[in-house]
Amino acid sequence: MIDIRNIGLVAGIELESREGKPGARGLDALIACFNEGLLIRVTGDIIALSPPLIIEKGQVDHLVEVLSGVIRELQ
Length: 75
Fold this sequence. Notes:
39% of the residues lie in helices and 23% in strands.
């Protein structure tokens, strides 16, 4: 991970690009999160989070749990 930018819950998480494969790590994150029931947006190797304003604490906890696990597992 290179950088995290946020305002409240709106965030951008910049992942380090793979050598010669820009965007591949972001795509892998998208697929892994989707398989765990979490929908994220990616632009290249940047994860964009913009949860709804009515999100509940349990949902935020799930988001953080899934996303942190996915980021740890990315190679």
